[in-house]
Design a protein that fits this description.
Elements (H helix, E strand, L loop, with lengths): L4 H7 L17 E5 L5 H17 L5 E7 L14 H16 L4 E7 L7 H10 L6 E4 L3 E2 L21 E5 L4 H12 L4 E6 L8 H8 L4 E6 L5 H13 L4 E6 L14 H22 L6 E7 L1 H4 L5 H19 L5 E5 L10 H9 L2 E2 L3 H11 L6 E4 L1 E2 L1 H8 L31 H5 L3 H20 L20 H15 L7 H4 L3 H13 L29 H9 L5 H7 L1
Parallel strand pairs: 1-2, 2-3, 3-4, 6-7, 6-9, 7-8, 9-10, 10-11, 11-13
Antiparallel strand pairs: 4-5, 12-14
Helix pairs in contact: 1-4, 2-3, 2-8, 3-10, 5-12, 8-10, 15-16, 15-18
């Protein structure tokens, strides 16, 4: 533990209980201190804390403190603590899934610094919206920024060398193999854990027709002896492996409460153990490149994928560590690939609603070619509508990491090409307030039914809460986008969060489009809202569950509540 941290917290008026594991109590926050165990054990230890915090009835904030889990300056990369880097990935995803219970990540240097405990105490109690902070003792915070990749000549690979793709028989692995052949590779190893059965012969034959020798090797990339044997065989044949692309991985969508030690290990293993085995077995070999196929999940997190975020965050840190020690490595935080990859059709549909569009493999790999071998160690390659993504995430809590990538209020507006609104706004403007309100309600009912996938009557009840009707954050954004396209008017990304049901939304649109006060309505036109006495109170320290209940009970402004916590 940071020396004296408990004493500084007590001096600041806090009651502190120190324990090896979290126990339920009347606490306002839990501070989890990362240890010196393996990445697997550190992730499992934090998982236990996260699940206990999520199950605590009283709202409580979780803070995670690491040492050298991040490197705010290049000189620190050689000292990165990879197990702590992995749990940063877990923290990012926990913040998306349990926004009301997330306090943030604080990283400290391995050797400490004067007044460290005081600085940590100040950060913990500051109420800052920054949820990723490195204290050195300067205070660093991360930001994702656009990067213009300078043009360069096409990558040319050696016809005499061998190149190896782990996870080579997956859709991404096969696309990468075709691309490598196009760059001049003539000898490829594709590896995977499955046996060499008849199903792989077709893809291999297709690659061979492109003019390369392609061999499939059934091996476990986490097995040091198997990895060494493949490298030695290539050396013995006079065609040493000069480039490796580590594309092996497992993605598993699981809510936090359903993650088990077994599922955590299954996701960590190919990337964490596999990445480390490749690192260890190539430290003394001459490589032109080692590419880790990572994910955007390790940059800003991914709901229901905290183990996947952890695994990829480990790879990112390993690439930085290798580069700092003079070894070749880059890590690419890929967005979804069109036509295959870790994201299936359902996941890609959900991602598209979030503003993250799958990109064709030829485009993805063309960008990779501009980075190899290169010294830009980590890059995000993804097609993202940043205002839409930020609008979804920041409906729960601010995410300052993405604050330089588009205003959520800009997602998307009339500038998207809408010129002739289909909703008859002008005609409705000629109606008396009560008739106009009824017309708007009927229109909103139809739009919401379409988004919810309702095929027949009855239409959604205007008094029913959006989230009671089945709307989630992704569908809420789709609903809002339909209204933008229909009206040709700009509407906030948090529309469904700010106005809890169709009645409240209709009143908002009435005032926005026609500057009219709410109409006096009869029961036939629109039922009266639920009285305030029936709405449960929500405090500044509300949990996600409290907030959800409040939304269901027609309290407005989920965004305001989560930003106040």
């Amino acid at each position: 533990a940071p020396t004296g941290l408990a004493a500084h917290l007590v001096a600041a008026g806090q009651e502190v209980h120190e324990a090896s594991v979290y126990t339920v109590g009347a606490w306002s926050r839990v501070i989890h201190l990362a240890g010196d165990a393996s990445p697997r054990d550190e992730c499992l230890r934090l998982l236990a804390t996260m699940q206990a915090v999520a199950a605590t009835p009283k709202p409580i904030r979780l803070h995670v403190i690491t040492r050298n889990g991040v490197a705010p300056s290049p000189r620190e990369r050689s000292e990165l603590q990879l197990s702590h880097a992995a749990i940063w990935g877990m923290g990012l995803s926990f913040g998306l899934e349990q926004a009301g219970r997330w306090g943030g990540l604080i990283d400290l240097p391995a050797a400490g610094f004067p007044q460290e405990d005081a600085a940590v105490t100040t950060e913990l109690l500051s109420g800052s919206a920054e949820d990723q902070v490195a204290l050195r003792p300067e205070r660093y915070v991360p930001r994702v920024r656009p990067n213009q990749i300078p043009p360069r000549e096409s990558l040319k690979l050696s016809a005499d060398a061998s190149y190896w793709i782990t996870g080579g028989m997956g859709a991404i692995g096969l696309a990468t193999a075709r691309w490598l052949i196009g760059q001049g590779a003539r000898r490829l190893f594709l590896s995977g854990r499955r046996a060499a059965d008849a199903s792989i012969q077709g893809p291999l034959a297709s690659l061979r027709r492109l003019g390369a020798e392609v061999a499939y090797v059934a091996l476990d990339v986490t097995d040091p002896s198997a990895v060494a044997a493949l490298l030695d065989e290539a050396d013995a044949n006079g065609h040493p492996v000069r480039g490796i692309i580590h594309a092996a991985g497992v993605a598993h969508n699981q809510p936090l409460v359903e993650v088990t030690p077994e599922s955590m290990e299954a996701v960590l293993r190919p990337k964490v153990e596999g990445g480390w085995v490749l690192h260890e077995n190539t430290r003394q070999r001459e490589l032109d490149f080692l590419v880790f196929y990572s994910s955007i999940a390790s940059v800003w997190g991914s709901k229901w994928q905290l183990h996947y975020s952890a695994a990829n965050r480990f790879l990112d840190a390993l690439a930085l560590l290798r580069q700092a020690n003079g070894l070749p490595a880059i890590t690419i935080n890929w967005g979804p690939w069109a036509g295959g990859g870790m994201a299936g059709d359902e996941e890609q549909t959900l991602l598209a609603r979030m503003g993250i569009t799958p990109v064709d493999s030829a485009v993805q790999l063309g960008l990779l070619g501009t980075l190899l071998p290169g010294n830009q160690v980590q890059q995000v390659i993804a097609h993202v509508d940043w205002p839409t993504l930020r609008g979804l995430i920041e409906g729960q809590r601010p995410l300052l990491l993405l604050s330089e990538l588009g205003d959520p209020g800009d997602a998307p507006t009339v500038a998207d090409g809408v010129e002739h609104p289909s909703a008859p706004l002008a005609a409705w403007g000629e109606l008396d307030p009560e008739s106009r309100h009824a017309a708007v309600i009927a229109w909103l009912q139809q739009e919401l039914a379409t988004v919810l996938g309702w095929k027949a009557d009855p239409l959604p009840d205007p008094r029913e809460g959006f989230f009671d009707l089945g709307l989630d954050s992704l569908l809420a954004m789709e609903f809002r986008n339909r209204l933008v396209k229909s009206t040709g008017r700009s509407l906030p990304a948090t529309l469904a969060f700010d106005h809890g049901n169709l009645l409240a939304l209709a009143e908002y649109l009435d005032a926005k489009f026609w500057s009219a006060p709410p109409a006096t309505r009869t029961a036939a036109a629109a039922p009266a809202p639920i009285p305030a006495a029936a709405v449960p109170a929500v405090g500044d320290d509300a949990s996600d569950e409290d907030i959800d209940e409040a939304v269901r009970a027609r309290l407005a402004r989920l965004e305001a509540l989560t930003r106040d916590t």
